[in-house]
Structures are given as structure tokens and as C-alpha cells.
Fold this sequence. Notes:
Vanillyl-alcohol Oxidase, Chain A, domain 3; globular; alpha+beta; about 325 residues; about 40% helix; single chain
Amino acid sequence: MVTCSRDKNSDLFFAALGGLGQFGVITRARIRLEPAPKRVRWVRLAYSDIAMFTKDQEFLISNQASEAGFNYVEGQVQLNRSFIEGPKSTPFFSTTDLSRLAGLALRTDSAAIYYIEGAMYYNEDATISVDQKMEALLDQLNFEPGFVFAKDATYVQFLDRVREEESALRSAGVWEVPHPWLNLFIPRSRILDFDAGVFKGLLRDANPAGIILMYPMNKDRWDDRMTAMTPTADEDVFYAVSLLWSALSADDVEQLERANKSVLDLCAKTGMECKQYLPHHTSQEGWQQHFGAKWGKVAELKAKYDPQTILSRGHKIFPSRAAADGVATA
């Protein structure tokens, strides 16, 4: 057993963050608790202009907005065809809401509608002040006029929102199906190119089941000592894009896997220098390319903390010791 932290055995501590189970098994962790708020003002703001969408998202994660902004912020993308062929309501959007959004997509001739999802936490004695804070913040943003969708919920209900989505999918029989997901980190300077090539290009006429997440992150929140890889571009912000597909039939699995490959091929062909989060490679060469300049350090840490290459062999990052020594394995 080894105890590690930022200050004690720090190389193992950071190696385990994004380490794909290569360096150890976490058996115990300390999580500091703090008082939880009681309620949440929860909004989704609709955009048809990708430039305004990304501008506002980057503002919301900036120091400028840190004191007066959302406690939680995330972005989503909804392809136009899903308004016609997708569900007529969701746990957040009513049938009327989706009809209005479909009209917005048609009127603006946008290939997709983009949402900023934000939440402000508060206690019952601060209802007036949170409303004032929300109004002041929304005045600074560039969403489509009139396309603010708001809910008030308890903090627990907000935290439980994914389970509510799960329940809706289970009731429709589309939860326990294959999920060929693709998670990417995109350099800030290439996010508009990604949107043009993928959402307005490869996927423009598609209607895959699932959701698409797209939101920026501050690079200084990701310690470079971690094993997790972020874009190497010298930029303060990068974007997370998650294609969280659900394959409703056997044919969908192959189709979505091909779509994912097309996205990766586009990124490579256009030199976007994207990095996969939780990637899958079938050879050590693929992993070396993924880790890039960190590969030497990753190999060094593997030799130090798992010299017999016992942990997480299925990723095929490192050959088993027996295979490396030329010993037949069952």
C-alpha cells in the first residue's frame, strides 16, 4: 500500500490522474466536504451562431465572470435533423420548447442549435439576490432573444438530472444498448474548424441517438504532471467535445463507429492536433503517438510502479512481461 498526494509520492499521485489504471488501484481516497446549497436556478440558453456560443462560453469560465457567473456551466449541440426525427419532449424541454427550437433552426438555416446550460446555487433566504444576479449575467450574453429556458430545482434534483435522463431512456428501451462514444479535446484555435467540418459537414444530415457536449476548459486547471493528455497548443483554453452516441440496432454500431473514425480522420487530415480522452488504441505505437512527449515519463512510471505489467493489460499500452520475455501465455 502506498499513500500519495500532491506532496507525498507526487509522481504516483499525478500518474494515476488519467492513468487508465496503469500505475495502481485506488483503494481509499479523501474527499473534503463542504455545505451544500438548497436550491438551483437552472437555465439553458439557445444559440444558432457558433461564434457567439463559444464567445459566451469562454466568458463564463473566465476570471471576469467567476464572481458573478454560473456555479455550473456546460455546452450542448443539437443537430437539426433531431428536431424532426428525435423525441418530442425531454426531461428538460417540453414539446412546445422543442417546437420553438426547431423553428429557430429553420429560420436561421443553422446546421445545429447550441445550448449553454448554466446553474446558480442559492439558499431560500437569497431568492431575490439570485434572481438579480441571473438577470445581470444574462444581460451580458448573446443568446437568441427570447430563447431562455429556466427551471427552479432543489440542489439534489439538479445533481440527479442524469438519472432522470436515464429513467426516460430506460422507459423507451434505449438505455441498455451499445454506446460507441468519442471524447475529444480540441485546441481553442480550431474549434470553429471542428464545428464546420463535423457538425456542419460530416454530421450535417445525421440524426444519431444520443447527446453532444461541447464546452471550454481552462488549461491551467489541468496539471501537466498528470498522465491525462490535453492539446499541446500554447493556448489558455481548450474544448471538450463528447459524442455520446447510443446504438439502437446492430447496424447503428457499425455506422457510429465509422462516423467516429471519420471525425478522427478529419482531425488528423486538417492538423487539428486533437487529443482523445479515454482513448482506445490497438498498438503501442498508437499509444506512443497519443502520449507524445510524455511517453518516456509514462514508461518510466510503469517500470517503477507496475514492473510486472499486471495492471490494465487490456489497453495494450505495455506488453505483458511474459510476452516481452517471449514466454507463451494462455
